[in-house]
Fold this sequence. Notes:
CATH architecture: Orthogonal Bundle
Low-confidence stretches: none
CATH class: Mainly Alpha
Amino acid sequence: MKRSKVDIYSDVLECICSEGGKIGKASPTRVARRANLPYDRFQKILEHFIGLEMVNRTKDGLLITAKGLICLEQICRSKEFFRRMGLSI
């Protein structure tokens, strides 16, 4: 089954968090692999997130910002709401 953009974006943000993104040490290569994305497609999404100030690059890797964490929380809440309503996104 094909993933929606919302699913892909939330997967990327979740992978950044789980790979050490809260302390700025998430490896871009590992995040792309865990999110199951080709690296070139991941790079485009990452640049989009950086432009929105949801993710920053550090000398050690990627750092998810407060704005990125809020966005991830909102996506998870929305997905849960739609699941309870019997809808899928």
